[in-house]
Amino acid sequence: MRRPTLEAVAARAGVSRATASRVVNGQTTVAPHIRDAVLRAVDELGYLPNPAARSLVTQRTDSIALVVSEPGTRVFSEDPMFSTAIRSASMELDAVNKQVVLMLASSPTSHARVERYIAGGHVDGVMLISMHGADPLPSALSRLRVPVVSYGRPAVPVDIPYVDNDNVGGAEAGVRHLVASGRRRIATIAGPQDMIAGQDRLTGYRTVLRDSDRRSIVAVGDFTRESGAVAMRQLLRDDPGLDAVFVANDLMAVGALQSLRQAGRRVPDDVAVVGFDDIEAAKYTEPPLTTLRHPVAEQAAAMVRLLLGLSEGGPSAPVILPTELVVRESA
Amino acid sequence: MRRPTLEAVAARAGVSRATASRVVNGQTTVAPHIRDAVLRAVDELGYLPNPAARSLVTQRTDSIALVVSEPGTRVFSEDPMFSTAIRSASMELDAVNKQVVLMLASSPTSHARVERYIAGGHVDGVMLISMHGADPLPSALSRLRVPVVSYGRPAVPVDIPYVDNDNVGGAEAGVRHLVASGRRRIATIAGPQDMIAGQDRLTGYRTVLRDSDRRSIVAVGDFTRESGAVAMRQLLRDDPGLDAVFVANDLMAVGALQSLRQAGRRVPDDVAVVGFDDIEAAKYTEPPLTTLRHPVAEQAAAMVRLLLGLSEGGPSAPVILPTELVVRESA
DNA sequence: GATGGGTGAGAGAGCGCTCTCTCACGAGAG
DNA sequence: CTCTCGTGAGAGAGCGCTCTCTCACCCATC
């Protein structure tokens, strides 16, 4: 006993399959009483259109791939940015009745699989969250004839519209806050330099330090708490006299705070700390973290709109969202 | 200029469409030289099977829905359990070439949408992450003729195989640890009582307290940091003399630690704290958190295997995974 | 009263694939 | 040398839907 087909609905309503199809798809060129008859039949039979059959002829799938490329296990699970972005994009797509196909690509094998999948026409569009510079996916996907947008500026110059936040400007604002509060020796824990966010936030730091005649003191982390803790210990060895540190994301700032505590430095009295992202956890550190807020959910939603607009020939200019300094107790 | 079809491949290789199909689908009843000719044609044309056409006849979609039901915005984004589970399930499904369709259902509207989607035959199976007791989805989905498995025991008794961790046993171990270290007045911050994890962890707490002749002191949170902070303040008001608190998850424990700090209590000297989950952040609290670890990734992977087994008539007995006490400095 | 245009419904051709059924052919047995 | 059987390849039906094309019918117009 299989599922009812449109044929069955048409038969029950006493109309042709074509008319039933028109009603199901909401066309208006159907007389009201016929329309009602069809809808009643749909209801009685519990009819639901077969998506495969529909896709076959319409050449649409009504689903969108959300590709998260090269997610380090820890980072993906721990950094709430991912889940926030995924959630927001998902809700935005739900609203227009598109489904989200989630693809996590970490190995060359899985990159190839993703590429084949997209090329195979399983989805109508792709949202790419790719942070890593060496990632082959942005260029690979941009060659396909599927609309692609990116969350964050792609690391390699490639013709993909994207939505990003103002990483440089945010970093500048954070470091300027430290300068303004009289800090002299301002270090930074930078993010990975093969990621745009890592690069840009370091650029912002350097710009302000240069303009205010201070020396850069740089350690590099990989956006995990652990790397933040390690980098902070190294900075304290390199320059025991530092009195502030700008950390490229909150997760690393959490690690840095722990290292400072273990080294006996008081925050903010001895060392001021500014983070980046304003994750929820930033309110619960000891002391609460001064950081730069950027609208992750809005960025993801904007990305969805960009993608949907693209399929309708809309504009494909990058969207850059602003960043806001949130002052708490750490600086 | 559309994509090459199997017809084109067959023509190029000089065989029938049926033979080309056999080769593409890896059947062995094809002579080697013909097989090679077809594969060469596939390669030259860049042929990829049309998934809609294939699904239409095979009645399979090779994709699995991952339904996260009723995720409070904050909890979903902040609790790393979700991303860990999603990641693990996704990787496990990738390995068998199944795609993950992610559906977040939070409102009655979206519940209906999910149900229609599943009933519509878009997917071959469903993995349900539903924590809320009043959630209509478990029973709704179990009525469909699609295999369904659940991450965590469903709150309402319903015939869905599931994988869960030993919440009761874990809570007992945590509280026993507090008893063994000589704590007298042991409170708890319980999780929401319409969630199984909330109920079971409270049950474990109560059992041990009863067995050791202590009085229960209970506040209830909703698994967010904020609610943990609020609950802790309330407990301190209710019983200023408490010397330990068992918190039903780490996120709430983070909030509780903050409230204890603000109230001037030292941890663990004045008040010992035990959490639950062992999220990464537990290592970075001040002081680091003693907690109960359970294997989220393994639980998700086991859920995938359960689902895949189900479609092949495998067993559908619930799987319960063990929990382990991780002693750090907070208790 | 004949003609023209507009509207609503049906007929039927595919979309690209899988799979059953059929058939051709060659080898081995009698 | 004929018959049987097994193996490998082709023919063709159909999966369930959309959409174009066609046509019937009604009303307004001259």
Question: What would your notes on this structure say?
Answer:
The structure is a homodimer of 331-residue chains. Chain A is of the alpha/beta class. Chain A has three domains: 44 residues, lambda repressor-like DNA-binding domains (434 Repressor (Amino-terminal Domain)); 129 residues, Response regulator (Rossmann fold, 3-Layer(aba) Sandwich); 127 residues, Rossmann fold (3-Layer(aba) Sandwich), CATH 3.40.50.2300. In chain A, the strands form three sheets. A six-stranded parallel beta sheet of chain A has the order 2-1-3-4-5-11, with helices on both faces. In chain A, strand 6, helix 10 and strand 7 form a beta-alpha-beta unit. In chain A, helix 2 crosses helix 3, helix 6 crosses helix 13 and helix 9 packs parallel to helix 10. The termini of chain A are far apart. In chain A, 53% of the residues are buried. The model of chain A has no long low-confidence stretch (mean pLDDT 92). At the A-B interface, helix 4, helix 5, helix 6, strand 2 and helix 7 of A face helix 4, helix 5, helix 6, strand 2 and helix 7 of B. Strand 2 of chain A pairs antiparallel with strand 2 of chain B. The structure holds a DNA duplex (30 and 30 nucleotides).
